[in-house]
Structure formats: C-alpha cells, structure tokens
Design goal:
The protein is of the alpha+beta class and about 400 residues long. The chain folds into two domains: about 140 residues, 3-Layer(aba) Sandwich (Creatine Amidinohydrolase, Chain A, domain 1), CATH 3.40.350.10; about 250 residues, Creatine Amidinohydrolase (Alpha-Beta Complex).
C-alpha cells in the first residue's frame, strides 16, 4: 500500500478520505488495496485513509491486531455504542468519503459494503460516495511489466488459437471423430506447453452451443463437430508468473468452404459493431476527451440495433482485464449495468459484441489497451470467418 499515492488520488477526486470496512472477509478489494493479510474477521474492523494526515483504524478487542500491519492509531471497541463513538472519532473533520458502495448497485463489482453499514457511517454525518473510480485507479491500472506480459500472452494465445482451428480443419476434412471437448483439451494442452495458465475454459461451441455466451463443454456435455458446422472459440490465459495479466479473445469459423449467407451477414454485423466500439475509444483517447464505459457499449449496441439484431445481443460489450480475466476497472456496459466509470490510462478491456441466433452465434472479441495518449488493439483482429 502506498499511502501517498492513495492520498494524491483522494485529493484529485475531491474526497476527504476512503473508509475500508470488513466482516467475515466480504471485501477482498479492501485486503488487496491495503496489502492486508487475509484473516477471518469475525468482528468488524474499519480503516480510514484521510486525504491529508495520518490514517487510523477501528478494531474489536476480541480480535486485536487485525490491522497491525497498517500504519496509524488503532482505536479499540467492544460494544456497539463504542463502535459508533469510534467511527465518529475516526471520521472527525471529514465530510465526503468513499466506500466500496455503488448507488442502486449500478456497479456491483465494487458493492461490497452492506446497506446497514452505509447507514451506520452516514449516521456520523458524512456523505458516502462510491469508491469505484478509486478501485479502478489501484486495481485496474497496469505497469509496463504487466503490459508486456499481456502482449507476450497474446502472441502465445493467438498461436494456440490458430493451431486449434487447424486441428478442427484436419479432423473435419478427413471426417475423423471430433468433439468440442477434444478441442478444449487441445487448447488447454497448448496453454500448458506455452507456459500459460487460465482459471477455466475455454469455450468451444458448435452451432447452437455458440449462442450460449458461457457455454463450456465437459465430460457430461459435449457435441460433435462435423463438416458444415459453425464453431466459436473463446479462450483466455496469462503467463504463469506473478503479476501477469490476461489476454482474452473470441474467434469464429465454418467447417467448410461455403458458409451460409446468414452466417456471413451476422459475422459482418458483429465485426462492424466491434469496429464501431474500437473507433469510439480511439477517437476519444486521441482527442483527449473523457470517455465512460457505457459510451463504448452504446457504440456497439447502436450498430447492431440499426441492423435489426438488437434483441440477440444479450450481454455487455466488454469487461475490464487484469490479473483476473474479469478485472476491476471500467466495463464497456450500458445494458447489464450503467457503467459511468472513466476509461482510464494504463487500463485494458475487451471489446466483444455478439449476436446469438437459435442455430448459431457470433462473437468477435479483441482486447484494447489505453495508454497516456493512444489506444490500441493488442492482438490480431479477425476480419473474415475462418474457413476450415
């Protein structure tokens, strides 16, 4: 934890402080931002970092030392009345503070503090606002080393993706038996050989299975892949080393030489929406204009709506990417949530619109990195259906 950097960010966001709270390890974000060793908290603790001055904590006498690794005074309490007095002491002089809270749960990824605790804190006379932008500043911003790990993972994942399609091509052209699960295992083997790891996946979906955005074959559920089938591959992985960040892509192909007009049309709609979202990001960043996640979603969704497929685009346009494949920065979302977090420098996110018809689904996913004055797609971009 870097107190000085946190306080600089608090002042930049015109906040008097950041109040952290936990009970029964409900808020993993607090432990990560504070660099606090994870311990089971059977009693409530609070830790306040003011925009200026020394931080301080509030911890129960039954669990002294919960905040021992953090700087500042630790106020002890036992009773609920002492807790209230301790909170008032902790927040003395503050008027506007941040907590892991989101109004109307618009951004559930940071909504870690329960409503009752928010009421308790507000009872001390302070205004509580969301820490969503603060979390993004300290959880989603990459280092130069993280960016290089992403780029290297991208080169390796793109190689596995190309090899997986070639594996499908060889099997289906020779009419050899092939299951979605076979391709999944091929990809995972490629990751292992390439020194990469993943939390789960990949998604390998044929025909109608490609229309389930979170479909994943396993030992019990898998379908054959044959000539004439449509195939979607969604894969994500990172280098097997500390601090590495993910690379996450989706490509689609057709097992044959002549995909249907419907397949070609939907593919062009989805990739057009992808490119519209990319353009919205690049133009805003190069022009020095502020951009929020929901605006990127709007660009992709408007394109798909204009082509008559709006009801078949059932998820957000993209998600933050970090050491977890779904990171804690701004998502490109004005459907599932209204994400009004800024698209910040040194962050990365996916752009992945999709159209999911009953007989097949198309998604085209790329990753975008935003630097200080430019934004770019970090890997290969699919321009045509892969013909297998």
């Amino acid at each position: 934890m870097d107190i000085a950097k946190i306080q600089d960010e608090l002042r930049a966001q015109k906040l008097d402080g950041w109040l952290f709270f936990d009970h029964h390890q409900r808020d993993p974000l607090a432990y990560r931002v504070l660099g606090l060793p994870a311990r089971m908290a059977t009693r409530r603790w609070y830790y306040f970092i003011p925009a200026k001055g020394e931080p301080a904590g509030l911890e129960h006498r039954v669990e002294p030392g919960m905040l021992a690794s953090l700087p500042g005074e630790k106020i002890p309490y036992s009773s609920w009345t002492e807790q209230g007095d301790g909170l008032r002491k902790l927040l003395r002089g503050a008027r506007r503070i941040a907590m892991q809270y989101s109004p109307l749960c618009a951004i559930p990824y940071v909504a870690m503090v329960d409503a009752g605790t928010i009421e308790l804190v507000r009872g001390t006379g302070v205004e509580v606002v969301s820490s969503a932008e603060l979390i993004q500043a300290f959880e989603a911003r990459w280092s130069a080393e993280a960016l290089e790990s992403h780029m290297e993972a991208g080169r390796r994942v793109d190689g596995v993706r190309a090899a997986a399609f070639e594996f499908i091509r060889e099997r289906t052209r020779n009419h050899a038996p092939l299951q979605e699960l076979d391709v999944k295992r091929f990809v995972l083997d490629g990751f292992a050989k390439g020194g990469m790891i993943t939390d789960h996946g990949p998604i390998v979906g044929v025909n109608g299975n490609a229309s389930n955005p979170h479909y994943e074959p396993d030992e019990q559920v898998t379908s054959p892949i044959r000539r004439g089938d449509f195939v979607l591959l969604d894969m994500w992985a990172k280098l097997d080393r500390p601090g590495a960040v993910y690379y996450d892509i989706t490509w689609t192909g057709f097992c044959g030489d002549q995909p249907s007009d419907s397949m070609r049309n939907v593919f062009s709609v989805v990739t057009g929406a992808r490119d519209a979202a990319i353009q919205r990001v690049t133009e805003a960043v190069s022009g020095g204009r502020a951009l929020c996640g929901y605006e990127v979603d709007d660009a992709a969704r408007q394109f798909i709506n204009s082509r008559g497929f709006g009801t078949y685009f059932t998820h957000r346009t993209g998600h933050s990417i970090g050491q977890e494949v779904h990171g804690n920065g701004a998502n490109m979302d004005n459907l599932e949530t209204h994400d009004d977090r800024r698209v910040s420098p040194w962050t990365c996110f996916s752009i992945e619109p999709g159209v999911y018809l009953p007989e097949f689904g198309v998604r085209s996913e790329v990753n975008m990195f935003v630097g200080d004055r430019e934004a770019r797609v970090t890997g290969e971009i699919q321009r045509e259906l892969v013909l297998l």
